[in-house]
What does this fold into?
Amino acid sequence: MKRTFSSDTYHFLLASLLSASAQSFFLAAHRHGDLLQGISSLGVVFLSALFFSSSILSLSLVFFTGSERRQKQIWFFVFIALAFHIILYAHALRFVEALLFFVLTVGYSLKIWQRNAAKNYLSYAIVIANIAIGSGFILLPGFLNSPVYQPALFVKNLLGLIFLATASIRLLSLLRPEKEFYYRFSKSVVLPWLGWAFVFAKIPELSIVVPSVVLSATLLTPSLLPFEKVRLPENRMFGNLVFPAVSLLHMLFLALVYYLIQGSAPSLTEKNDIALLFSFFLSLVFLYSVMKSHAMIHKLISDPTEHLDENEKKTNFERFSERLFAPAQELLPLSEWQAKKIQGLSDILSKEKESTRQFAMLGELRKELDDQYDDPVAAQLVANSIARYFKIDIVAVFLYDIESQEAVVLASAGKIKANISSGYRQKISRGMLGRTARLRKTQISNNTEIDQDYIAFSDTVILSEVDIPLINHGHLKGILTIGSKEKGAFSAADVRTLA
It folds into this structure.
């Protein structure tokens, strides 16, 4: 299970919130009470179109690799859509949702413009939102002054305490990632939102229930969606048309339904409700279809040698997602045949490359290690050779101190070697480094943002890392660490060469 929420989770959450708002505004404006009071039908249509378009743009960052410039362009539209949410909710005195959207907007803006991959912006945003809302429940008498909040007045103090308590647990799990106890209860941060939705479940106020349900569902199931397996490169291949085609189809469906139900009498508003429920269901079907198609295409175009470490633990959600998005062999016999042919040729080529790389590296190391018997010097030569050969950002050789149960850096090389201080130590009970020491097996992570054990070196952003145990006569002597600032930097062939 992921200890942090990836950038994809943030994009997916915002896309889901905006899409749900767009559909409910468009098809069931009567279910939003005074939130849309004073806004004309044309204004509601405009807001719905803006929200839906922004949700598609945000979701495109999940389905396609986007440049930094493109992410900032999409941020502008998403920011405008979220700002409208904040204004609407604040004007209607619905401060709970207004605060939620405000904090999510600030966190999203910082994520896009600061570009700090190591910072878990979504988790901190939820923590801050829970603290602010919980404090408002307890300390501000007028915080729930909106008439629509009346059903929550009798439980506001209890909900306030739950908001604060769960935020504290989540914050501790972020500040003390090595403490398993805090992590086990960190997802309780969604409990107050589920409670908030339950309080208003009997009241037809979608503007309160929908954000709470969408937020809770997204935070509880981040591992259900295999984002890495559905992301395609941005190019002109035919498979990239699936997502825009499905999005266009959904928009046409919404326009058709809106035309058919336009002018319904107030007594026939149940037609709007049925249309909205069907639209939500159709959204899930379309989402599944796009993910299924992208997963198939990703498998065909990806390097078959690029696999994560087989020893890495998989959660129930991850196993379920693998079954959910497994290729449909009966639907793609030709594609399956092509995939096998491509995989066979790629395997042969990768083996040839691997043999050549191994021979070259071993020959170079043998020459450099001749007449060198001092361990620090030999370790430094190994680090220098690997850094030069693989052109990676950091290589470090750690010595295992059996007395202190720590890994101590002995030598380092690479572009950012200065970020590893001399004598750096790390307990083998922590992190990916410690996992390598305990299991005595090579560990690889091609996306450290989602690795539940990974602990970054001080002031260093490493997105891909390989840790190799150095074993002599069955005893652990040290660990060789290789890291890169890029995601997906290491293939299985690289690991075999190093190990």
Remarks:
- The chain has a mean pLDDT of 80.
- The longest strand covers residues 475-484.
- The two ends are 27 Å apart (CA to CA).
- The longest helix spans residues 333-369.
